[in-house]
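FORM 12-B: Structure-to-Sequence Request
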């Protein structure tokens, strides 16, 4: 029930005024503050929470964080206030001329005695129905698996041909072509011009996506447009565009609006770019960075090749130091043979001298024993010893000769000259290096050929 507000006597009809003498003690006078407070309470308690639509004007956002503006239509206007705790949930930045819907309550600003709307929620006009439609479509396509990350294709690293489905006259296509030309001039660019807003735009966008996918000319497809209102971006929220993107055989990038705008096309495409310019950067490799990477790889390859070549040279040098020329080995074996021969002769002379000493000793001992029998026996023993000595010397000399012949045969077998005697030849190039493979030869190259007996010069005609 509304409160009863006292009425000022001046506003009462003259017939209803009390006598002066009687009313002096019963008169109730309100201050302006009390009056505004009573009116405010009356408005707030009698008018429920309501929705009001109109156009914003005189918008102000002071440092306190509160918003103050006027809501108007063609015939009237009303002041509005939206405090900081409420306006934080608004997903767009209001401004003069913006059509909005307000959920608000009626109040009175007591300081000026003006009634105003205290706004609790604000949305763009027409946005509520569109958002509900958008959420229903998103939920249905999500349930079908149209946004499943498992079905999304990877973007190619270096696409040779890039298709762009967008308006031919917008700033978005100019930005994308400029960025692609600067970052990745090697890629061919083909534009599929379509309207990106208005009636029938979604059908033409979907048809262009389908045609680009069936053309077989592209490695990557960019679909998008520049920023705008929800109504301007709506063709990219329609089901026909989402299904065309999902069915496209090419990897696709959706680049619709600004970073804060998210459409159904962004969810259905294989990749989402926050802006058309960002889509061009995602689709292209930076040519300067590629050249820097290539130069770094070339330096690493050259460094690795130098290290490998140095390592191989060390191995060749080490192997060369370990190898000996056959002539040197032959000389060493001949020297060893001479040494063995000298040792054999020295041993034979020593043993002969020992036998002679024994003979002389025996003779001296025999000279002291003149008996004929002893002399005869001694002579027989001497003759027998002489024969034994001769036989032993012959046997020893024969054994030494056999050892010497065997050693000589071994030396002969390992000698390169023995290999040459079996019909082989030793071929060297003009630097004296031994030729081991025909792959090291070249036509017309001079060669030196060593045989078992003599040598001759030759020249390469062909190699096999």
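FORM 12-B RESPONSE
SEQUENCE OUT:
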């Amino acid at each position: 029930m509304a409160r009863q507000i006292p009425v000022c006597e001046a506003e009462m009809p003259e017939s209803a005024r009390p006598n002066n003498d009687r009313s002096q003690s019963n008169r109730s006078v309100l201050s302006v503050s009390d009056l505004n407070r009573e009116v405010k309470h009356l408005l707030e308690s009698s008018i429920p929470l309501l929705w009001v639509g109109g156009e914003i004007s005189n918008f102000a956002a002071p440092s306190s964080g509160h918003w103050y503006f006027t809501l108007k239509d063609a015939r009237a206007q009303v002041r509005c206030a939206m405090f900081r705790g409420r306006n934080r949930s608004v997903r767009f930045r209001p401004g003069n001329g913006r059509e909005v819907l307000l959920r608000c309550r009626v109040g009175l600003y007591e300081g000026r005695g003006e009634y105003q709307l205290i706004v609790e929620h604000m949305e763009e006009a027409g946005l509520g129905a569109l958002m509900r439609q958008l959420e229903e479509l998103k939920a249905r396509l999500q349930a079908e698996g149209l946004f499943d990350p498992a079905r999304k294709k990877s973007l190619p690293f270096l696409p040779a041909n890039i298709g762009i489905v967008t308006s031919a006259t917008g700033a978005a296509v100019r930005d994308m072509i400029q960025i692609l030309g600067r970052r990745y001039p090697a890629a061919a660019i083909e534009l599929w011009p379509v309207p990106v807003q208005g009636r029938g735009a979604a059908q033409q966008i979907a048809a262009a996506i389908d045609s680009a996918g069936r053309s077989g000319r592209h490695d990557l497809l960019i679909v998008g447009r520049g920023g705008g209102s929800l109504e301007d971006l709506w063709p990219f929220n329609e089901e026909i565009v989402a299904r065309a993107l999902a069915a496209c055989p090419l990897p696709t990038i959706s680049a619709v609006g600004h970073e804060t705008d998210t459409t159904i096309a962004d969810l259905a495409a294989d990749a989402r770019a926050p802006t058309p310019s960002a889509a061009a950067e995602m689709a292209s490799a930076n040519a300067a960075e590629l050249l820097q990477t290539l130069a770094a790889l070339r330096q690493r390859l050259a460094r690795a090749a130098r290290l490998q070549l140095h390592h191989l040279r060390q191995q060749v040098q080490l192997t060369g130091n370990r190898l000996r020329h056959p002539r040197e080995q032959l000389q060493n074996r001949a020297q060893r043979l001479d040494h063995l021969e000298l040792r054999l002769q020295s041993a034979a002379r020593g043993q002969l001298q020992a036998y002679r000493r024994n003979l002389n000793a025996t003779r001296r001992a025999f000279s002291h024993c003149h008996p004929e029998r002893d002399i005869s026996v001694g002579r027989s023993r001497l003759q027998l010893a002489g024969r034994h000595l001769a036989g032993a010397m012959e046997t020893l000399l024969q054994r030494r000769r056999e050892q010497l012949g065997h050693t000589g045969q071994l030396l002969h077998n390992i000698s390169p000259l023995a290999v040459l005697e079996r019909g082989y030849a030793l071929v060297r190039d003009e630097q004296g290096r031994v030729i081991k493979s025909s792959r090291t030869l070249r036509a017309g190259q001079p060669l030196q050929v060593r045989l078992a007996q003599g040598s001759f010069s030759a020249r390469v005609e062909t190699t096999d």
